[in-house]
Amino acid sequence: MDAIVNAPVSSDEHRALGQDRLRGSIDGHTRLVGVIGWPVSHTRSPAMHNAAFIALGLNYVYVPMAVRPDLLQAAIGGLAALGFVGVNVTVPYKEAVLSLLHELTPAARFVGAANTIAIRADGSLLGHNTDVDGFTDDLMSHGVSLPLQPASPALSRGAPAAGGPSRDPSDHSVKRALLLGAGGAARAVAYALAHAGVHVAVVNRTTEKAEALCRSVATSLGFANSPAAGGPTAHHFPEALSELAPAADLIVNATSLGLNGPGDALPWDRSVPFRAGQIVYDLVYTGQTPFLQLAAAHGAKAISGLGMLAYQGARAFELWTGQPAPVDVMLAAISG
Ligand code: ATR
């Protein structure tokens, strides 16, 4: 058997972990959490969670674990024996991990992916998808109200020190959303919005994938699969944008366009204007993408996916620790 070689972590990550170790101590009582992926050198989650543990004085440590594909089953199977409280799961294992878990939440089952595992006292593994609630939590932190406001522990606490970022005082009511993309990231957003009572129009280059996503949202949430019943609708990208954009209160980019930097094609048609006050959200969390810049230039409220990253982490933190997450600390740790 080949030697098991972990992918190297960046020097920044080493530095961050080293600083954390100096500030907190690891001892026989330290509780273990972490992230499993391949590679994991890109992940900001260790910095985010370790900053949160230090801020609350919790004796936990979050470690990155680069797991080779042929060892995924062994790694997941060994978590309970090693005493882990839980782990995050990142690319490329969010789907593959499902068959290795004992139970899934409805959101993880629907999305077909788990990004968080909670390990129960009996050693059984429960798979969550905290991207779903992370997305709506972040919308709400920006003053967005949804028809069926989902329960949001991170926001309902309201305490500035241990709560979410202060709410934007303006109230943006979202009833209709236009969702760009029909891949894995779009599934979490479609489920979150439809579950919150928002009518979702899915616009995708491959219409069949949009149709399949709409059918599974409708089935999973009990909509008759028709627009009249409030179920999601499928449309072709980019032709449908001009017709659908004016009525949308919220537009979300969940395509992979933008992930490769500003040189990527826009997930939009430049001839289609945005409305002043329209909310435009980009799941890409590298800051103001060209898509967000275009929307902002039209007076739209442009939101980057960085907050979603913090809130999905906050949901995982709360599952593992049972404590309210310091979302401001977590957001600060991954910003910049
Ligand atoms: P993820 O898991 O990150 O969502 P994915 O499942 O590969 O990634 O989905 C990528 C999404 O971006 C898809 O909706 C894809 O459209 P197709 O279903 O037609 O492939 C969309 N996408 C990627 N490149 C695109 C492009 N050049 N133009 C339009 N849409 C694109």
Commentary on this structure:
The protein has 336 residues and is α/β, with parallel strands linked by helices. It folds into two domains: 144 residues, Leucine Dehydrogenase, chain A, domain 1 (Rossmann fold), CATH 3.40.50.10860; 173 residues, NAD(P)-binding Rossmann-like Domain (Rossmann fold, 3-Layer(aba) Sandwich). Helix content is 36%, strand content 18%. 2'-monophosphoadenosine-5'-diphosphate binds next to helix 7.
Nutshell version of this structure?
The chain has 336 residues and is α/β, with parallel strands linked by helices. The chain has helices at 11-23, 45-56, 72-82, 106-111, 130-141, 153-156, 184-195, 207-221, 241-244, 290-297, 306-321, 327-334, and strands at 31-37, 60-66, 84-89, 103-104, 116-119, 125-128, 144-145, 172-173, 176-180, 199-204, 233-236, 250-253, 279-282, 301-304.
Give the tags:
single chain, 336 residues, alpha/beta, Rossmann fold, 2 domains, six-stranded mixed beta sheet, six-stranded parallel beta sheet, 36% helix, 18% strand, disordered N terminus, binds 2'-monophosphoadenosine-5'-diphosphate
**CATH C-level name of the largest domain:** Alpha Beta
Largest sheet: 6 strands, mixed
**CATH topology-level name of the largest domain:** Rossmann fold
Strand order, biggest sheet?
A: 2-1-3-5-6-4
Radius of gyration: 20 Å
CATH superfamily of the largest domain: NAD(P)-binding Rossmann-like Domain
Give the helix tally. Answer: 12
Spans where pLDDT lies below 50 across 5 or more residues: 1-9, 156-165
**Overall outline:** globular
Q: What is the CATH architecture annotation of the largest domain?
A: 3-Layer(aba) Sandwich
**Strand runs, count:** 14
